[in-house]
Amino acid sequence: SQQGEEDPQALSIQEGENATMNCSYKTSINNLQWYRQNSGRGLVHLILIRSNEREKHSGRLRVTLDTSKKSSSLLITASRAADTASYFCATDAKPPNYQLIWGAGTKLIIKP
Amino acid sequence: DTEVTQTPKHLVMGMTNKKSLKCEQHMGHRAMYWYKQKAKKPPELMFVYSYEKLSINESVPSRFSPECPNSSLLNLHLHALQPEDSALYLCASSQVSGQEIHEQFFGPGTRLTVL
Q: Could you tell me what percentage of chain B is helix, strand and coil, using 3-state DSSP and rounding each to the nearest 5?
């Protein structure tokens, strides 16, 4: 089942620029995760942010969470060609039952 | 070892064939998952095993039959599939602690084509 929307659906930027993707969800959550998927491959976990956290950093990644707006954003700074991928947000179900509820994804293309 | 392996990488089968997809992890994770993913879509959960017991079956047709022989292995048996079952099948695993959702580690997937 799908929790919400991600926007934009697709984003194309020049290498070195920053990329921002947004995720909205519908119900209250315990945590929200971001994953990356290179074309036709498995997903890679990027970062998990809990509902009591507002911001989290990991390398060039910065994730924010606004539970009042039921939204999150993923910022990738100083983008590289290798960042070209699809990015998905996922939230836990209520009540928690091992199930992740996935956003539709943002396709990011970094132009050299 | 933080890897989830899946075999085969690619599989082409006819509608009358029986085949199996295999998944293995050695991270000590006690939750394992099967997902189906169509192009340009997010993964769709099919099954969840927790401590080798089937916890979730997302109303998947019986032509898909999961099996968890032990804590490291997960199989998906396929029989009498339809062309619309062609997709990327992903296996994942995660820690279990109470009911908290942990990060999931994904395998590279099996690209299945049903003729």
A: 5, 55, 40
